[in-house]
Specification:
- The chain has 102 residues and is α+β, with helices and mostly antiparallel strands.
- It folds into 2 domains: 58 residues, no CATH class; 43 residues, no CATH class.
- Helices cover 44% and strands 16% of the residues.
- It is built from 3 helices and 4 strands; from the N terminus they run ββββααα.
- The strands form 2 sheets. It has a two-stranded antiparallel ribbon.
Length: 102
């Protein structure tokens, strides 16, 4: 069990299970406060390769924007990059990373 350890006014240790606690983070793209749902913790518990403390959680709006951007890139740009010289691809990657908040 993962819990928060706090102390009451008498100095006694109180263990509060994380499941009973409202836990929040901020979207790294827009800064909106997000409540981390129980489904997130279920996913984390079942995935030993996933580090919840080093992962970014995006709000629904930013996730939708990024998915839309990904679909646009896939549909309109990726085919034209198949034959681009590697030097040009490196420049493009460097340029897009400045704006993609990667």
């Amino acid at each position: 069990m993962i819990y928060l350890k706090t102390y009451d006014e008498n100095g006694n240790i109180q263990e509060q299970p994380m499941i009973d606690t409202e836990i929040f983070c901020n979207c790294p793209r827009c800064g909106k406060e997000i409540e981390i749902s129980a489904e997130y913790w279920d996913f984390v518990g079942g995935n030993s390769d996933f580090d919840p403390f080093e992962s970014a959680i995006y709000c629904d709006s930013c996730t939708a924007d990024m998915n839309e951007m990904k679909e646009y890139i896939t549909e309109h740009i990726s085919a034209s990059l198949d034959h681009a010289p590697s030097e040009e691809l490196a420049k493009l990657l460097e340029f897009t990373q400045k704006y993609a908040n990667i």
